[in-house]
Amino acid sequence: MQDTSCLRVKPRFNFGPRFPSADTATMKSAEEDALTYTPNVSLSLPLGMGNPCLATQYHNLQNSPVISITSCHQTGYAIHEDTLTSGYYLPHGLRPNGAPPLESPRIEITTYSQYPEEEVEESSSVDPMAKRVNSIVTLTLPNADGYRDPTCLSPASSLSSRSCNSEASSYESGFYNYDNSPQNSPWQSPCVSPKGSSSMMPCTQAAGSSSSPRQSPSNSPHTGVVADDGWTGAPRGSRSNSPLCGTNGIIGGGAGKRKYSLNGAPYRQPSYSPNHSPATSPRGSPRLSVPEDNWIANTNQYTNSAIVAAINALTTDGVSDLGEGIPVKSRKTNMDNSPSMSLKVEPGGDDLGSGADICQEDYSSRMSFKRESYCGGFLDVPPHPYSWSKPKPYLSPSLPALDWQLPSCSGPYSLQIEVQPKSHHRAHYETEGSRGAVKALSGGHPVVQLYGYMESEPLTLQLFIGTADDRLLRPHAFYQVHRITGKTVSTASHEVMQSNTKVLEIPLLPENNMRAIIDCAGILKLRNSDIELRKGETDIGRKNTRVRMVFRVHINQPNGRTVSLQAASNPIECSQRSAQELPLVDKQSLDSYPATGGKRMLLSGHNFLPDSKVVFVEKAQDGHHVWETEAKVDKDSFKSTSLVVEIPPYRNQRISSPVQVSFYVCNGKRKRSQCQRFTYLPPNVPMIKTEPNDDYECQGAPVMPMHSKTFYGQQRLTPLMPLGEPDGCLGGGYSSCPLRPTGIPASSPSSSPKLHDLSPVAYPKCLPGSPTHHPNPMQEMAGRPSLGLPASPEHTSLTLLHSQSSPHLSSPTYHPLYTNSSPSSSPASHPSTPGTATESPFQSFSPSQLPNRSSPPSSPPALPVTIKQEPQELDQGYLDDVNEIIRNDLSSISVHTHA
DNA sequence: GCGCTGGAAGCATCA
DNA sequence: CCTGATGCTTCCAGC
Q: Which PANTHER family match (predicted)?
């Protein structure tokens, strides 16, 4: 175990020291670092909680076999991933089982890889030769074809633009890392079809050749180094990185704007992208960011996700491989490479270089550098304002994946966002300096509070950046939370990687009334091109600029269960341009009104224009516009931040039940606000106050009962939730949490969906007992591709894949964990978690079982169908296209639509 | 000198 | 294919 742990540690070390990381601040103080880096314990995380490791946990880990695996996670992930992937695909025929197909890609990655270890490991696992690193890469190229399925690429980013240049490959390599994350890996990438498409070949080759030149410096021999660099560079830190870029400058371009690749093809961030090519990374790039994060994440995944990953690995065939062999070689490689790393200056770099040995030793030595080294930190935790070392309440070995939908309240507990973040926050690129912490409308910062928790144990509040589209809440692929430090920051925090998502952990202290001021969280924008090329990524970044801050807390119960709560903020527009141009509705004075209309409603927001229009829209489930009308706007009372509109009469004055419609503010053809929900009430029915849902997208928003929103709202109970029903549908669980604990203030209007929002209806979808049931909504969606609205038309065919491939998709991973989880703490052991529940909802899926294109859901739930809504930013035409696709799908599938 | 911001240039993609 | 509108990234400059 220790060895493995050491291995892991190493990356971390690197991570810390080297990276100035995105957070420059992070680098600043040892203390901070300590916070930032999870102790080696992280390894334990899997076992214990998501957090900093506790010694006890650590021990546990050691004891449990699982733990060992966990420790290896990175490697394991990588390997694991491959294995899984292959397996996964096999059924589909996409990928031949063996690694071979994958190998080539791996090789490339290795070459460029930022992260030597993983790659090396992978290669090793697959092919001994691969271990050798760079040279190998070249050899494998042929297979590369299969490596990625061009089709998989996100539409948004046109591959073509990227050209064959190393970019793709490099990206992939970078992605690779991502993939490594346990959760993601196996399922992620259907998209990345193994099939070798010849098309890719060129790229591969190109990558090999072209990239090499650029990378040259670092590349070759020092792949490992490069990787290290990657780590180092990983920090992408804002400006700090830029200098590096400058170095690369030539390539990268410095000019800043866009440069052309050597090939002459327009160069997008290609080669340099940090992630992509390790070698480049240091120099290049700022771009590493994503990759780095990922890398970091990999290394850092101390959190629960780590556990999950570990579990996955276990489940997977290749698991064993993960930990072992790879590490050593990688280390060596790294070390060798390390020299190159030295350039970077980061102390951490050295660490990287060192092998497992380094782990402790280096660690110690380096630790001097940073006290809290992971390994050392583990045993010896540096004092900090907030003692992370404090035992965390989480007992559950496994925590819900980030893409799981959780309720905001459960039993006596309720997680509330007391102060919502501003609707606009310009995210910063890696190449930029931080743009500060997300602020609240009032000028302060968002505030989150946990109600109903009476214990004396502090808890950890997790924060990550989630999506704000109409689909299920999930980690946002293009944005990451960014830890802000400095004098102005009063809240301690530290970062951990969970899957490919950076998670900020913030203490929730009883002395603070379990209330946290979120002044330590900024938002980092990852380049679309980096993410879109990521293996398995199906989301598009273009115009996908809205996010939500997602808060989670895991509360251990005396009975051993863990209650996980989640609250998502109002949507936050992160694009500079969008923020300046798109109208945005923050508040509306009325959420519902009788069908007669005529009432004036005040809209508060931004970017309203004198000629702004307010359009009410009702759409059928199939996306057809059932009704659309423009409301009268009182221009006399116009303000850029407020509009007064007269609620138009509903088309049918005799409705017998509330009708959900939406409206948006339109400043022009392509400048629409996000849709706001509005409910027309039967004329004689007393008005019912409903919570506005900013998230609600009008696009494709079907006219449906509020509960449909629930689905959208992503309310979901995790198995972990005590409330959750064993069956997994958890409908009961939701219902059980219908009301907010007394004394709990009403949540802000657009606060995340409440538990009570979860209607039984939504849960039925879970299809208890159904073999095909997907614990994860995404999976569920995958199983019912037709039901989900593809992120983009291009993705239509990939809808299913999307869910599966989602980097964040963790549920599958989760299952094994859940099922296999260790004894006492494991959810499975919970009395409340009947075996059935475990099996049914969390049943682990074999690759073949996993939903995918080739395997349509065996039995679509006979549940109400909800249509996913597209981000409102998308053009109507685009949306219409999507809707059309959906309609087609629906027509081909018999689905029960709820009345 | 650094971090935080606002603004905007330059290039890519879309319509 | 051309052009204008939009979007995305990267820089710059001021506080």
A: NFAT (PTHR12533), NUCLEAR FACTOR OF ACTIVATED T-CELLS, CYTOPLASMIC 1 (PTHR12533:SF5)
DSSP labels for A699-737?
Answer: TT-B---HHHHHHHHT----TT-SSS-TTS--HHHHHHS
A258 strand B contact, CB < 7 Å: yes
Question: Residues A518-542: what's their mean pLDDT?
Answer: 87
Q: In sequence order, which ranges of A127-237 are alpha helices (DSSP H)?
A: 128-131, 134-147, 159-162, 166-180, 184-188, 200-206, 212-219, 223-233
| Whether the predicted model's global pTM rises above the 0.70 cut | no
At A882, the amino acid letter reads V
A161 touches strand B (CB under 7 A): yes
Q: Rounded CA gap, A498 and A155, in Å?
A: 26
List Cα–Cα distances, A89 to A97, A817, A818, in angstroms. 8, 22, 24
pLDDT of residue A127: 36
As ranges, strand C nucleotides with an atom below 7 A of a protein CB are 5-13
CA of A784 to C1' of B2 (A): 51
Q: From residues 562-601 of A, list those within 7 angstroms of strand B by Cβ.
A: 576, 580
Tokens matching residue A703: 């006219």
CA A585, distance to chain mean position in Å, is 26
Å: A161 CA to C3 C1': 20
| Nearest nucleotide by C1' position to the A155 CA atom | B13
User: pLDDT, tens digit, for every residue of A702-756?
Assistant: 333 333 232 233 333 333 333 333 222 322 223 334 334 333 443 333 333 332 2
Q: pLDDT, tens digit, for every residue of A752-802?
A: 333 222 222 222 222 222 323 333 333 333 333 332 333 333 332 222 223
- Read off the pLDDT of residues A317-368 as tens digits, 9 standing for 90 and up: 332 332 222 222 222 223 333 323 332 333 333 333 333 333 333 333 333 3
Which nucleotide does the CA of A543 lie closest to, via C1'?
A: C7
Place of tokens 């792949």: A223
Give residue A807's Cα distance to chain centre. 7
Give the whole-angstrom CA distance, residue A237 versus residue A233. Answer: 8
* pLDDT-above-90 percentage for chain A: 15
Rg for chain A, CA atoms, rounded: 25
Distance A883 CA to C5 C1' (A): 25
User: Exposed, middle or buried: residue A199 (CB in 10 Å: 0-12, 13-18, 19+)?
Assistant: middle
Res. A584: pLDDT tops 70: yes
Closest residue (Cα, C1') to B2: A433
Nearest to A822 by CA among A39, A79, A59, A3: A59
A26 touches strand B (CB under 7 A): no
The answer to whether strand B lies under 7 Å from the CB of residue A527 is no
Which residues touch A357 (CB under 8 Å, ≥6 apart)? A6, A331
Q: What is the CA A166 to C1' C3 distance in angstroms?
A: 32
d(CA A718, CA A754): 14
* Distance (Å, whole) CA A600 – CA A590: 9
A409: nearest Cα among A721, A815, A631, A672: A721
